Amino acid sequence: MATEPRPWVEPLARLEALTQQCVHCGLCLPTCPTYALLGTEMDSPRGRIYLIRALREGRIDPTEVTLNHLDRCLDCRACESACPSGVRYGAILEGARAALEPTRSRPAVTRALRHFAFRSLLSERRWLRAAGALLRLGHAFGIRRLAAFLPAALRRAALVAPIPRGDAFLDQAPALFPAVGAVRGRVGLFVGCAMDQVHGDVHRATVSLLTRAGFEVAVPRDQTCCGALQAHNGERGAARELVARNLASFEGLEAVVVNSAGCGAQLAELESLFPAHHGSGREIARAHAFSARCLDLSTFLHHRVKFALSPGVPAASGAPGLISAVYDAPCHLLHAQKEANAPLALLRRVPGIELRPLTEPDWCCGAAGIYNLTQPILADRLLDRKLDHIEASGAHLVITANPGCMIQLEAGLARRGASVQVLHLAELLDRFGLSAEPGSQR
Length: 442
Ligand code: SF4
Ligand code: SF4
Prior knowledge:
By secondary structure, the protein is α/β, with parallel strands linked by helices. Helix 4 packs across helix 7.
């Protein structure tokens, strides 16, 4: 009897070596947020790897139930940090989502919207400008208050719609910001897609920090989206096209500074978009070299700049007049880029800040790209858990380093009426006056 064709088997077979690294020890399970919430093996990293292997071996089909288990994954990669076998779970999940995307039966309107979002909205400045203007207009009319009157499909988007911080950045920025004082080098600034519209002030603070540290900051106008949302959602072809544009834009710069943990993880791991069977050797080598030059802002500042220590203000001293803060580590900085130390090392030097411990700082807040739109119930449960910990710390500030986390935390704190402010690390360092020592490049 003829068997049904299974077009997902061949692309999943390319993940076989990666999935075989899993020895089923289960040490990742306690670190997995979806396993903690749902308690089901198939919503754990080990269970999902098992499902992907079963799909590849033709033992199961990509039914709605199976795909649901994969969709519920945050791609937070906490499991990678816990795994003693070095399983590259993110690469497995993203590869599997791309292989399974053609099997999904989405309504035509959803397909059209996804196509528009991934192929145009996130990557073309004219659409981003229009979206930014619409967002500002929405807030001028009180979009969050009006959410209850909107159709269900739009209600969630209205409730989590971010409040822009300052004007959009790229359109007003010169191609090159000069260094303050002696020139130590020239770096590029990656501005992202939505972040450029929503968090313009974070970019301005970043430029201020870098130029005061003696760096010229180039802001290429033709740079584009990093492709993370596309890659995480099974659209790797679209992500690869964006890589080619960014490679050309940032050619010749010694480093590309990224102040979004999600974009940074994507840019630093382009090799997973260009496996050996895809692209020419030269293309792959260029992508790898570009990845090596992309650094998170905290990594760059911590390793390249020596900051002036503020005399007489020991961190966490509890002295009166200090502002209390907690640091919530973005998953894609901590678990994907493996940068745990730099943000904390910088924060401990900031005069006037009392850095308090936060319970579960390494747990996802539920933002996870568009997860808070696609999985609202789970996202809200994770957000509540995070906000409980933040409020229990008694801190006045939450510091993080990813636009998605900022939006998620701000929306949740506003819903609770909490008087805790969310700041990007760059804003805090700039606002509280951490300054580079003159001639201080390390
Ligand atoms: S990426 Fe996060 S949610 Fe997904 S399996 Fe790993 S720990 Fe769980
Ligand atoms: S992913 Fe790693 S930690 Fe989790 S079960 Fe497999 S080998 Fe063990």
